[in-house]
DNA sequence: AGCTGTGAATATGTTCACAGCG
DNA sequence: CGCTGTGAACATATTCACAGCT
């Protein structure tokens, strides 16, 4: 077997250590900045510059990349386009993802109309609710379907990612049904900590918690975010 | 000086080590669970139970509390109401916060109508935009004001927290104006890393990044979130 | 006996610093 | 000579384990 390929596989397949959550977010940010540079016609970029744009450090950039292989040229920096491509592949954003929206209330509605999802590769392919008033209704160019049909809809449309925008008390049960149907990643807007089996990824978005974090920082002396020193 | 008071002050005032971001989020979650328990009439709770409800471990709960003092009774656990009160004070959520919304577009609109903000103590006291079509308009029971008046509005209404929901390219400049006006905490919905002076807290909410994180986890072997052995 | 509070041990994440390639 | 890739040093966060109160 070819050496480079072996190396690549050993990077892609498991035994490499788990990538931290914050590292994943940084990859996302790198891709975004690289796209902007690509559009601006920049051919190469050193870690220092990419770091400045992404709000981190040069060492962090290089360390982040090193978990996946060796993308740069010493003395030269990184070639923008190939790097963007490889990071996109690693992130899994070099494709489109069919996404399920559960909950056609206020939050679900806002998310459905958020244009950046589609422009970044995430397409809503179903909207589910359980209210008899909503199910069957034509809604923003899509028909709202009943949550009870999730077991048919998810495999039928190849869905693996769902956005959960239902009231807190319903979230756990609905999430379990999603997982039974085949969903493996959930973006959870309910202020509820979901108990999920291994192999299911959950990302919580809790806007009140974000404001409360600011409240804490402002309340506790205002001494946070002290400059580097 | 009284010993307990000395101890209290040494906890409240600075030299205690900085609280991590994740610890702050957990505090927020504890408060929410404690409120539910209070409503359910539960008098005391051991760390083990609070941990289970908040999705963490008993040791983590105790460690989190220990940075702020000593709230429990050995052998008994924690008294629900007093604990909820003290944590609320620490988080700064034992009061109401006037909040500024900047950007009356789709995202701003959804945030303005999100009912949990008000119910959790955060009140929008101004909505700013710079579009001539929007400024001056009556909007959801509030009048949209011009961003240029931020330097008057922020001190006038005692605003320290702002929610930034403007397009990416405008975010940095608007954020600087907010800070000049006196804002010290920003919840940023623009997909832009803000460069801010020390003393200003920024929390980013980037929904695309959250989906991309799921995309990564699903793409990389699906071997994440492995059960604890 | 049950449970907290906490130092000590471990695990995880970030920064440093430098060897070595282009 | 600039810049990457990376082990080693450091910093931070989590878990363990147990002394000590109730």
Describe this structure in words.
2 copies of one chain form a homodimer. With 229 residues, the first copy, chain A, is an alpha/beta fold. Helices cover 45% and strands 16% of the residues of chain A. Chain A is built from 10 helices and 9 strands. Chain A has helices at residues 3-12, 21-39, 47-54, 58-66, 80-91, 106-112, 115-119, 150-156, 168-181, 207-219, and strands at residues 44-45, 78-79, 97-102, 122-129, 138-139, 142-146, 161-164, 185-188, 201-204. A 7-stranded mixed β-sheet of chain A has the order 5-6-4-3-7-8-9. A two-stranded antiparallel sheet of chain A has the order 1-2. In chain A, strand 7, helix 9 (168-181) and strand 8 form a beta-alpha-beta unit. The longest helix of chain A is centred in the first third of the chain and has 19 residues, at 21-39. Chain A is globular, with a radius of gyration of 21 Å. The relative contact order of chain A is 0.08. Mean pLDDT of chain A is 92; it is low at 1-15 and 223-229. Chains A and B meet through helix 2, helix 6, helix 7, strand 8 and helix 10 of A and helix 2, helix 6, helix 7, strand 8 and helix 10 of B. Chain A binds a DNA duplex (22 and 22 nucleotides) through residues 17-18, 20, 22-23, 46-48, 57-60, 62-63, 65-66, 70-78.
What do the pLDDT scores of chain A average to? 92
Main sheet: strand order of chain A: 5-6-4-3-7-8-9
Largest interface, counted by CB within 8 Å of the partner chain's CB: A-B, 74 and 73 residues
Strand portion of chain A, in percent? 15-25%
Shape of chain A: globular
Radius of gyration of chain A: 21 Å
The low-confidence parts of chain A are 1-15, 223-229
Quickly count the helices of chain A. Answer: 10
As a percent range, the share of helical residues of chain A equals: 40-55%
Which quaternary structure do these chains form? homodimer
**How can the largest sheet of chain A be summarized?**
7 strands, mixed
Succession of helices and strands of chain A = HHEHHEHEHHEEEHEHEEH
Q: Which structural class best describes the helix and strand composition of chain A?
A: alpha/beta
Beta strands of chain A, count: 9
User: Kindly, what is the distance between the CA atoms of the first and last residues of chain A, rounded to a whole number of angstroms?
Assistant: 51 Å
């Amino acid at each position: 077997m070819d050496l480079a390929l072996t190396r690549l596989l050993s990077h892609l397949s498991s035994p490499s250590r788990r990538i931290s959550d914050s590292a994943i977010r940084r990859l996302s940010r790198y891709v975004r900045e690289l796209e902007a540079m690509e559009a601006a016609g920049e051919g190469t970029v050193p870690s220092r510059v990419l770091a400045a744009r992404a709000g981190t450090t040069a060492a962090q950039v290089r360390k982040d990349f090193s978990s996946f292989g060796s993308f740069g040229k010493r003395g030269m920096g990184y070639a923008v386009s190939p790097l963007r491509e490889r990071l996109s592949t690693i992130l899994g954003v070099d494709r489109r993802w069919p996404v399920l929206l559960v909950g056609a209330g206020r939050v679900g509605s806002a998310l459905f109309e958020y244009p950046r999802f589609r422009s970044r590769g995430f397409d809503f392919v179903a909207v589910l609710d359980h209210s008899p008033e909503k199910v069957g209704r034509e809604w923003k160019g899509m028909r709202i379907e009943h949550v009870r049909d999730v077991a048919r809809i998810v495999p039928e449309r190849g869905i693996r990612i769902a956005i959960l925008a239902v009231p807190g008390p319903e979230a756990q049960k609905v999430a379990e049904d999603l997982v039974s149907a085949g969903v493996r990643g959930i973006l959870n807007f309910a202020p509820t900590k979901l108990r999920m089996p291994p192999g299911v990824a959950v990302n919580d978005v809790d806007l009140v918690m974000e404001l409360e974090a600011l409240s804490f920082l402002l309340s506790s002396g205002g001494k946070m975010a002290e400059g580097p020193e």
